[in-house]
Input
Amino acid sequence: MRSVIVLPTYNERENIEGFLRAVRDIDAPIDVLVVDDASPDGTADAARALGGELGGIAVLDRVAKEGLGSAYRAGFDRVLTEDYDVVISMDADLSHDPAEIPEMLTLLEGGADAVIGSRYVRGGGTTDWPTHRRLLSKWGNAYTRTVLRLSANDCTSGYRAYRIDALRSIRPTTTQAEGYAFLTELVRRLDRSGYEIAETPIIFRDRERGKSKMSARIVVESMWLVTSWAVADTLRRLRGRGDRQP
Output
């Protein structure tokens, strides 16, 4: 299957070479679209230089730092019009091991419509996280899964592979969320559309270089949007139940 990684970046010059070389070590035809939010550290230029050496690497330059959701929408908008079978999303800081990609592709070939690299299934986990961050992530995912009635255990993992027809059908460019709520929004749309979502265990390793993009604002946005979606879903179910009354 011809695959492409959509890779949002902001100030990832310290990580981009290691990431791209690790992708090239995989025995599969995988292109990379780097979606760079005008990184002042020269991430986009470094990616372009490596593209000349490694091949199959393109850079989408954006004019400002506009958020994870916005970057993915721009990247998806571009690759969904091209001749790919699979779209992969992941982080550029090597917290997601590119060596896990072949297993994701195998699950797609086996019939899954989307595959999540999950920290919260047997064999998955995190390393180098402080206790408060681990608890926040586990609680947030449990809350999201429960109130939105989702089957996935890890709704906020950014390490994913999608069949392009499934991703195209849920219209990712029409989403509204930024931050990690964007990732939940995609899972919710896949689930509501009846697509098969598989999970494969990963070990998430905290970045060694560069600065995390996580912030309190992102956490608050995610919890607010998840709660509002849950309320909307509940009202929709109640209206449907009322319509069926004799």
Q: What stands out?
A: The chain has a mean pLDDT of 91.
